[in-house]
Protein backbone atom coordinates (compact mmCIF):
# COMPACT_ATOMS: atom_id res chain seq x y z
CA UNK A 1 0.00 0.00 0.00
CA UNK A 2 1.18 3.51 -0.83
CA UNK A 3 0.23 6.31 1.57
CA UNK A 4 0.85 9.84 0.41
CA UNK A 5 0.98 12.91 2.65
CA UNK A 6 0.36 16.27 0.99
CA UNK A 7 1.22 19.53 2.73
CA UNK A 8 -0.62 22.52 1.31
CA UNK A 9 1.06 25.17 3.45
CA UNK A 10 2.93 27.86 1.52
CA UNK A 11 4.93 28.96 4.59
CA UNK A 12 8.61 28.21 5.21
CA UNK A 13 8.35 27.16 8.85
CA UNK A 14 5.09 25.31 8.60
CA UNK A 15 3.17 24.01 11.60
CA UNK A 16 0.92 22.13 9.21
CA UNK A 17 3.91 20.32 7.68
CA UNK A 18 5.14 19.44 11.20
CA UNK A 19 1.80 17.83 11.99
CA UNK A 20 1.73 15.96 8.69
CA UNK A 21 5.30 14.75 9.24
CA UNK A 22 4.36 13.43 12.70
CA UNK A 23 1.39 11.57 11.22
CA UNK A 24 3.47 10.00 8.45
CA UNK A 25 6.25 9.13 10.94
CA UNK A 26 3.67 7.11 12.87
CA UNK A 27 2.84 5.14 9.71
CA UNK A 28 6.54 4.47 9.06
CA UNK A 29 7.02 3.32 12.65
CA UNK A 30 3.94 1.09 12.80
CA UNK A 31 3.48 -0.44 9.35
CA UNK A 32 6.30 -2.23 7.51
CA UNK A 33 4.10 -2.89 4.51
CA UNK A 34 2.99 0.71 3.90
CA UNK A 35 5.23 2.78 1.62
CA UNK A 36 5.03 6.47 2.50
CA UNK A 37 5.80 9.62 0.58
CA UNK A 38 5.30 13.29 1.42
CA UNK A 39 4.69 16.06 -1.09
CA UNK A 40 5.29 19.59 0.19
CA UNK A 41 3.53 21.70 -2.44
CA UNK A 42 5.57 24.73 -1.33
CA UNK A 43 8.75 23.13 -2.70
CA UNK A 44 7.35 22.42 -6.14
CA UNK A 45 6.93 24.42 -9.30
CA UNK A 46 3.25 23.74 -9.85
CA UNK A 47 1.61 25.17 -12.96
CA UNK A 48 -1.55 27.16 -12.41
CA UNK A 49 -4.56 25.27 -13.65
CA UNK A 50 -5.45 26.69 -17.06
CA UNK A 51 -8.23 24.30 -18.03
CA UNK A 52 -6.10 21.94 -20.11
CA UNK A 53 -6.63 18.18 -19.86
CA UNK A 54 -4.78 16.81 -16.80
CA UNK A 55 -2.79 14.51 -19.14
CA UNK A 56 -1.10 17.55 -20.66
CA UNK A 57 0.62 18.97 -17.58
CA UNK A 58 4.39 18.52 -17.44
CA UNK A 59 7.29 18.95 -14.98
CA UNK A 60 6.55 19.06 -11.25
CA UNK A 61 2.83 19.28 -11.94
CA UNK A 62 2.98 16.00 -13.88
CA UNK A 63 4.96 14.30 -11.08
CA UNK A 64 2.49 15.47 -8.43
CA UNK A 65 -0.56 14.37 -10.44
CA UNK A 66 0.98 10.95 -11.08
CA UNK A 67 1.99 10.54 -7.43
CA UNK A 68 -1.52 11.37 -6.19
CA UNK A 69 -3.09 9.03 -8.75
CA UNK A 70 -0.70 6.20 -7.73
CA UNK A 71 -1.45 6.56 -4.00
CA UNK A 72 -3.83 4.13 -2.29
CA UNK A 73 -4.50 6.42 0.67
CA UNK A 74 -3.79 10.07 1.42
CA UNK A 75 -3.31 12.46 4.29
CA UNK A 76 -3.98 16.04 3.20
CA UNK A 77 -2.86 18.84 5.50
CA UNK A 78 -3.66 22.51 5.07
CA UNK A 79 -3.62 25.70 7.08
CA UNK A 80 -6.82 27.70 7.25
CA UNK A 81 -6.67 30.72 4.96
CA UNK A 82 -9.67 33.04 5.04
CA UNK A 83 -11.85 30.40 6.63
CA UNK A 84 -10.97 27.74 4.05
CA UNK A 85 -8.08 25.71 2.64
CA UNK A 86 -5.15 27.38 0.91
CA UNK A 87 -4.92 28.49 -2.69
CA UNK A 88 -2.16 25.98 -3.44
CA UNK A 89 -4.47 23.14 -2.39
CA UNK A 90 -7.22 24.54 -4.61
CA UNK A 91 -4.75 24.64 -7.49
CA UNK A 92 -3.70 21.05 -6.83
CA UNK A 93 -7.27 19.75 -6.93
CA UNK A 94 -7.95 21.77 -10.07
CA UNK A 95 -5.15 20.03 -11.99
CA UNK A 96 -6.06 16.52 -10.81
CA UNK A 97 -8.13 14.19 -12.99
CA UNK A 98 -11.67 13.67 -11.66
CA UNK A 99 -10.94 10.10 -10.57
CA UNK A 100 -7.64 10.85 -8.79
CA UNK A 101 -9.06 10.07 -5.32
CA UNK A 102 -11.86 7.71 -6.26
CA UNK A 103 -12.47 5.07 -3.60
CA UNK A 104 -9.45 6.18 -1.56
CA UNK A 105 -9.49 7.06 2.13
CA UNK A 106 -8.29 10.58 2.85
CA UNK A 107 -7.27 11.74 6.32
CA UNK A 108 -7.53 15.47 6.89
CA UNK A 109 -5.31 17.69 9.01
CA UNK A 110 -5.92 21.43 9.28
CA UNK A 111 -4.32 24.18 11.32
CA UNK A 112 -5.55 27.64 12.21
CA UNK A 113 -4.50 30.60 14.31
CA UNK A 114 -7.28 29.61 16.71
CA UNK A 115 -10.13 27.08 16.67
CA UNK A 116 -12.42 29.69 15.13
CA UNK A 117 -12.60 27.95 11.73
CA UNK A 118 -12.44 24.28 12.67
CA UNK A 119 -15.81 23.59 11.02
CA UNK A 120 -14.23 24.41 7.67
CA UNK A 121 -13.02 20.80 7.74
CA UNK A 122 -16.66 19.76 7.53
CA UNK A 123 -17.98 22.27 5.03
CA UNK A 124 -14.90 22.93 2.88
CA UNK A 125 -12.51 19.99 2.98
CA UNK A 126 -14.86 17.02 3.24
CA UNK A 127 -17.03 18.13 0.27
CA UNK A 128 -13.84 18.60 -1.73
CA UNK A 129 -12.86 14.96 -1.13
CA UNK A 130 -16.45 13.97 -1.84
CA UNK A 131 -16.27 15.62 -5.26
CA UNK A 132 -13.50 13.18 -6.15
CA UNK A 133 -15.45 10.17 -4.82
CA UNK A 134 -12.85 9.82 -2.09
CA UNK A 135 -13.70 8.78 1.47
CA UNK A 136 -12.93 11.50 4.03
CA UNK A 137 -12.09 9.66 7.21
CA UNK A 138 -13.96 10.82 10.31
CA UNK A 139 -11.80 12.23 13.07
CA UNK A 140 -9.90 14.93 11.19
CA UNK A 141 -7.29 16.66 13.35
CA UNK A 142 -7.43 20.44 13.77
CA UNK A 143 -4.47 22.22 15.31
CA UNK A 144 -4.00 25.73 16.65
CA UNK A 145 -0.96 27.69 17.82
CA UNK A 146 -1.29 26.40 21.39
CA UNK A 147 -0.45 22.88 20.23
CA UNK A 148 3.10 23.96 19.38
CA UNK A 149 5.99 25.08 21.59
CA UNK A 150 9.62 25.93 20.81
CA UNK A 151 9.11 25.11 17.15
CA UNK A 152 7.75 21.63 17.82
CA UNK A 153 4.44 19.86 18.05
CA UNK A 154 3.99 19.79 21.82
CA UNK A 155 0.49 18.56 22.62
CA UNK A 156 0.38 14.83 23.52
CA UNK A 157 -3.36 14.68 22.87
CA UNK A 158 -2.92 15.98 19.32
CA UNK A 159 0.01 13.63 18.65
CA UNK A 160 -2.16 10.74 19.79
CA UNK A 161 -5.07 11.87 17.60
CA UNK A 162 -2.79 12.16 14.56
CA UNK A 163 -1.78 8.54 15.12
CA UNK A 164 -5.43 7.49 15.45
CA UNK A 165 -6.28 9.30 12.22
CA UNK A 166 -3.59 7.63 10.14
CA UNK A 167 -4.34 4.24 11.73
CA UNK A 168 -7.92 4.67 10.53
CA UNK A 169 -6.77 5.65 7.04
CA UNK A 170 -4.54 2.57 6.76
CA UNK A 171 -7.26 0.30 8.18
CA UNK A 172 -9.85 1.70 5.76
CA UNK A 173 -7.54 1.23 2.77
CA UNK A 174 -6.92 -2.39 3.80
CA UNK A 175 -10.58 -3.26 4.32
CA UNK A 176 -12.50 -1.32 1.68
CA UNK A 177 -11.74 -2.04 -1.97
CA UNK A 178 -11.33 1.05 -4.14
CA UNK A 179 -14.31 -0.13 -6.22
CA UNK A 180 -16.73 0.60 -3.34
CA UNK A 181 -17.91 4.06 -4.35
CA UNK A 182 -21.69 3.95 -4.83
CA UNK A 183 -23.42 5.13 -7.99
CA UNK A 184 -21.41 5.98 -11.10
CA UNK A 185 -20.34 9.57 -11.28
CA UNK A 186 -21.93 11.74 -13.93
CA UNK A 187 -19.56 12.48 -16.79
CA UNK A 188 -17.92 15.85 -16.33
CA UNK A 189 -16.47 16.93 -19.65
CA UNK A 190 -13.92 19.67 -20.20
CA UNK A 191 -14.67 21.62 -23.36
CA UNK A 192 -13.00 24.75 -24.60
CA UNK A 193 -15.19 27.38 -26.23
CA UNK A 194 -13.92 26.17 -29.62
CA UNK A 195 -15.01 22.61 -28.85
CA UNK A 196 -18.60 23.57 -28.01
C1 LIG B 1 -3.27 34.61 4.46
C2 LIG B 1 -3.61 33.97 5.77
C3 LIG B 1 -4.92 33.76 6.10
C4 LIG B 1 -5.26 33.14 7.31
N1 LIG B 1 -6.57 32.94 7.60
C5 LIG B 1 -6.89 32.28 8.74
C6 LIG B 1 -8.25 31.99 9.04
O1 LIG B 1 -9.16 32.34 8.30
N2 LIG B 1 -8.51 31.30 10.18
C7 LIG B 1 -7.53 30.90 11.05
O2 LIG B 1 -7.82 30.26 12.06
N3 LIG B 1 -6.23 31.17 10.80
C8 LIG B 1 -5.90 31.84 9.67
N4 LIG B 1 -4.58 32.09 9.38
C9 LIG B 1 -3.55 31.58 10.30
C10 LIG B 1 -3.01 30.24 9.83
O3 LIG B 1 -4.03 29.35 9.41
C11 LIG B 1 -2.27 29.56 10.97
O4 LIG B 1 -1.24 30.39 11.45
C12 LIG B 1 -1.72 28.24 10.50
O5 LIG B 1 -1.36 27.46 11.62
C13 LIG B 1 -0.51 28.43 9.60
O6 LIG B 1 -0.01 27.18 9.25
P1 LIG B 1 1.47 27.02 8.70
O7 LIG B 1 2.41 27.27 9.84
O8 LIG B 1 1.53 25.64 8.19
O9 LIG B 1 1.64 28.05 7.61
C14 LIG B 1 -4.24 32.74 8.21
C15 LIG B 1 -2.90 32.96 7.86
C16 LIG B 1 -2.59 33.58 6.66
C17 LIG B 1 -1.13 33.78 6.29
TrEMBL record:
It is an enzyme of class 1 (oxidoreductase). GO terms for molecular function: oxidoreductase activity. InterPro entries: Flavoprotein-like_sf, FMN_Rdtase-like_dom, NAD(P)H-dep_FMN_reductase. Keywords: Flavoprotein, FMN, Oxidoreductase. Residues 1-146 form the NADPH-dependent FMN reductase-like domain. Its EC number is 1.-.-.-. This is NADPH-dependent FMN reductase. It comes from Pseudonocardia hispaniensis.
